[in-house]
Amino acid sequence: MCGIVGAVAERNVEAILLEGLKRLEYRGYDSAGMAVLAADGTLQRRRAVGKVAALAERLVEAPLSGRCGIAHTRWATHGRPSEVNAHPHQSGERLAVVHNGIIENHEPLRRDLEADGYRFDSETDTEVVAHLVARESEAAGDLLDAVRRTLARLDGAYALGVVSADAPDVIVGARKGSPLVVGVGIGEAFLGSDPLALLQVTDRFIYLEEGDVVRLSAGGRIEVFDAAGTPMEREVQTFEHGDGAASRGDYRHFMLKEIHEQPAVIAACLEGRLGERSALVESFGPDAEALFSRVRQVHIVACGTSYHAGMVARYWLERFAGVPVQVEVASEYRYRRVVVPEDTLFVTLSQSGETADTLAALRFARERGYLASLAICNVPGSSLVRESDLSLMTQAGPEIGVASTKAFTTQLTALMLFTLALGRLKGLDAGVQGELVAALRGLPRLMEGVLALDGEIEALSTAFAEKHHALFLGRGAHFPIALEGALKLKEISYIHAEAYPAGELKHGPLALVDAEMPVISVAPNDELLDKLKSNLQEVRARGGELFVFADEEVGMNEEEYVHVLRLPRVHEALAPILYTLPLQLLSYHVAVLKGTDVDQPRNLAKSVTVE
Ligand code: AGP
């Protein structure tokens, strides 16, 4: 999604803003732009369609210079990707705005402004904000006041940055529904939609709250006001992941780096959360034990990959904690007339903690009489975490690749911790708890073993380079893993992929199977193995080529058109975590072969902050 960077500094901000935009590239975008208040009192703007590199070239031809500026990467919502639709948007020659989110009432506002003589250059919803601030500036005392008056007229979601040639060395920012952080420098202040954009200049951040408005001015002055206009002291937090997370190191792509980080981040996710033979319920917050003891049902809501993690958790929670579980995608849940049984815990899963539908689902759920809400999330200080009663951080560290990898396996690990914590309070046998805890501790080492198979998986990937479709099969808790495998393949290689519970094959999808349809299956050694093997025979009998990721002890042999890759033995309950890895690597290598943009696949954004 769109990205914002802003800086009021002691030096020329062009390089700071450009570097910030580069660091935001992972979010997905189609154009970029920058506006700087120059020393001669004028406002100067450069914009370009395509990558930040295109804007950088434009800046080489026509550099910007000044100590205050804003910049943006745009992911088109209203109006096609074009230079004229790229941000910053201006009203006249003296005021510029960058915006993430959607202004839902932009049409009536546009009509009103046009009637008042304002001329629109773009098709965007954002341009109304620029003109509204300009119009309000005539009546307002200053830029802050003009922005506040404008916000009162906006419906929808926004993170905003505004500069005006009439207020040199000032940026006014505001957030509602889209994240915005303030970077605290030494005598300098910065604005960003994501702390990663600013790590080159600071590691200290204020995470603005819903409705906050902020004024950054010369000398590093930062003034935060809440929605009512009351000055607020917001906590300054130090970013703990270091700047290394934002670089690829020796890896060709962030996705590959993040796949290989999984043993380490799973260990980080477990750290301090396991007792000798049980999971520590306190990890979920001081009130968790009292709340979890009362839980009789669980509703899990999430999007995309996070939703798949929720689907796996349903198998675990029902089996080990004995509580009924409902799992739903947030965009459906939020518009349903949900019936909430007494003592139901509402659980959201999100890498970013800013996904618009998941956040809206949480807000909707808060009005529906749930016992409490729990967020399992990778970003501390995100909206989802702040607005939930309980939270558990997945500790994956920043994930840059649009295709989620380590965020997913750490979510699964956190969900197993949740299962164990809830299970203990619901009478789960101590021996079973002990076994699962020991298995969790051994997981990072087993993951290393799977990652060592990378060369063999790469060799398998060549069979997919010319294919247009693929079918993924799994059973039980591995059906969601098949779904996740299919999602990975389609989002980065653009191959159409579908996933089915293997038992559904003969109810329809078997009609698709022929030599052109590779079938990928995960076959751990669990109670459904024999049934899965029969399903795979059905595929072979129709001439389908099989790629099976199987437990090293299952009797499954390589033969013509049946490729078997053996994975290390793992506790069968944790197999969904381990079996995710070969599917990630397979998608990665297929995408590399096809030459797609692995880290920033077309049309997708890392953090989906609009509905
Ligand atoms: C995964 O590869 C996707 N990029 C996407 O499905 C993602 O999981 C989804 O948008 C939810 O994001 P979240 O976890 O940040 O809420």
Automatic annotation (TrEMBL):
GO terms for cellular component: cytosol. It catalyses: D-fructose 6-phosphate + L-glutamine = D-glucosamine 6-phosphate + L-glutamate. InterPro entries: GATase_2_dom, GFAT, GFAT_N, GlmS/AgaS_SIS, GlmS/FrlB_SIS, Ntn_hydrolases_N, SIS_dom, SIS_dom_sf. Its EC number is 2.6.1.16. GO terms for molecular function: carbohydrate derivative binding; glutamine-fructose-6-phosphate transaminase (isomerizing) activity. Residues 2-219 form the Glutamine amidotransferase type-2 domain. It is found in: Cytoplasm. It comes from the Bacteria. SUPFAM superfamilies: N-terminal nucleophile aminohydrolases (Ntn hydrolases) (SSF56235), SIS domain (SSF53697). PROSITE patterns: GATASE_TYPE_2, SIS. One of its GO terms (biological process) is carbohydrate metabolic process. Residues 288-428, 460-601 form the SIS domain. Keywords: Aminotransferase, Cytoplasm, Glutamine amidotransferase, Repeat, Transferase. The keyword S-adenosyl-L-methionine does not apply. The active site is at residues 2, 606. Pfam families: GATase_6 (PF13522), SIS (PF01380). The keyword Cytoplasm applies. HAMAP family: GlmS. Homodimer. Catalyzes the first step in hexosamine metabolism, converting fructose-6P into glucosamine-6P using glutamine as a nitrogen source. This is Glutamine--fructose-6-phosphate aminotransferase [isomerizing]. It comes from Halomonas shengliensis.
